[in-house]
Design goal:
By secondary structure, the chain is α/β, with parallel strands linked by helices. The chain has a single domain, classed as Vaccinia Virus protein VP39 (Rossmann fold). Helices cover 48% and strands 22% of the residues. It is built from eight helices and seven strands; from the N terminus they run H-H-E-H-E-H-E-E-H-E-H-H-H-E-E. It has a seven-stranded mixed sheet, with helices on both faces. Strand 4, helix 5 and strand 5 form a beta-alpha-beta unit. Helix 1 crosses helix 4 and helix 1 crosses helix 6.
Amino acid sequence: MSANIQSMFGRIAGTYDQVNHTLSFNQDIQWRKASVAQLTRDGYEPKKVLDLCAGTGDFALAVKEKSPNAEVVLTDFAKPMLTLAKRKANNQKGFCFVEADALKLPFQDMAFDTVVCGFGVRNLDSPEKGVKEIARILKPGGKAVILEFFKPTGIFARLAYTFYVGSLMPVRGAAISKDKAAYDYLHQSAKNFIKVKDFKQLMEKNGFKDVSIEARMLGVAYSVIGIRK
């Protein structure tokens, strides 16, 4: 991933949680919890989990809350994000923090049984390469859950998405973070990302089966879950 994007995420790390919670009316916390519930719905019990593009660790903490015995590795290419994630983990057992590029992960094949990724895939230089890398490190039968903004389809989803991504994100994000360029970029990356059905096909093409989709907040965001073939 580009050095410019890495630097940008480092700059906004200190206000990242505040912006996310404010823009989503604290729903981003529930989106992650709902995605973990989707992961474990059929009695699936994650044991070794990778939180990819972990940011400040909210997805990892949601996993740990649901599955306290899981070993969770958080990886992100922005060191300031991981520093905040460590602080939030507060020395709890079962967490490990690794600074790494999502397209070149320093893990062996089939090292994990679960991967979660919240709002990171659309910022990869190549989402397809990212999906392939996720498939590489997952054991057969393991699960991946991707929580992300996708280009909306239905009329209500388009209206909600336009309000959230098109208006709130660039304006309020810039006001809180004092970094207009960062939230202009994040707005554009969300606006230009693919439709959720196309991402589902991307997963199916690159090592996943039984891919299912759940909408969050009228389709502002979606969580997509698939099983490694």
